[in-house]
Design goal:
alpha/beta, CBS-domain, Histidine-containing Protein, Chain: A, three-stranded mixed beta sheet, about 15% strand, CBS_dom, CBS domain-containing protein, Diverse_CBS-Domain, CBS domain
Length: about 280
């Protein structure tokens, strides 16, 4: 992801967080989105690295206990069933569906449940604006906004929708879906099978939750994997707190172990910083 794309995506994330009526958990939510953007940027860098020419190397031979866990797939985090509307759905019924389901967009499907496109609040807003106009726009405005005016005269989901829809498959890795959502600035994406039929929907918050582990899971990994299994120490002798990815660790430990213990904690995914309050004995 280029610097411009990263800046644009981060700016959109901030625009989703209104400055007024600030929620008590707003700071945590902003931090979650920043960590999400960092994960997306890392995936984008990996994509670019994969496309760079490099000498072929034989694949490493891994033992069973060295095998990495399978990456999360869209099927693991998508919502089912997905709300959708048929192509012949009238304008007002689409409005009612979005309002009733508290959605900003829905997939439009044909008789075989194949996704034809997506109709969003933006598509409906243009239609509503044309309906509310009391005078015809001038020729310059009609020329400048030709496509918008053409679409706004539609009466059904099929004529109002944006097509083709950007979709993902159930087997798509979550990281790749997040990268696609960020680049396309989408909050929701239809999930389709190999025939293009709608099987679910995945939202940006679904991807955030999958990519960014919560503080409790980070703490569990520190206490179980790092302290107990790697360093063979008693987790009860330490106090570990995690807040928005920031770790604070205290306790008494052999001074020679402190540097490597802190380094191991810093290398855990989603840890943003480590505060050292360990006492050497």
């Amino acid at each position: 992801m280029s610097g411009f794309e990263h800046h644009s995506t981060e700016r959109e994330a901030r625009s989703d967080l209104p400055g007024r009526d600030r929620r008590p958990d707003e700071g945590q939510r902003q931090d979650m989105l920043r960590r999400y953007l960092g994960a997306v940027a890392a995936v984008s860098a990996a994509h670019a690295d994969e496309q760079s020419p490099r000498p072929k190397e034989p694949p490493p031979i891994l033992h069973q206990d060295e095998l990495a866990p399978a990456p999360l797939r869209v099927r693991d985090v998508m919502s089912v069933p997905a709300v959708s509307v048929p192509g012949e759905t009238p304008f007002l019924e689409i409005v009612r569906t979005l309002s009733r389901e508290h959605l900003g967009a829905v997939p439009v499907v044909d008789a075989d449940d194949q996704v034809m496109g997506v109709v969003s609040e933006s598509d409906l807003l243009a239609k509503a604006a044309v309906r509310a106009e009391t005078s015809r726009p001038g020729p310059i405005r009609r020329l400048r906004e030709h496509r918008l005016y053409e679409k706004s005269h539609g009466e059904t989901a099929a004529t109002l929708m944006t097509s083709p829809a950007i979709t993902v498959h159930p087997s798509t890795p979550v990281a790749d879906a997040a990268w696609l959502a960020a680049r396309s600035r989408l909050k929701r994406m239809p999930v389709v099978d190999h025939r293009g039929r709608l099987v679910g929907v995945v939202s940006r918050i679904d991807l955030v939750r999958a990519l960014v582990r919560d503080d409790a899971k980070i703490r569990e990994e520190i206490e179980t994997r790092i302290i107990r299994h790697v360093f063979l120490l008693d987790p009860g002798a330490f106090e570990v707190t995690v807040e928005n990815g920031a770790v604070d660790v205290s306790g008494k430990v052999d001074g020679s172990l402190i540097p490597t213990l802190l380094e191991s904690i810093e290398e855990i995914d989603d840890v943003v910083e480590v505060s050292d309050h360990l006492t050497a004995v």
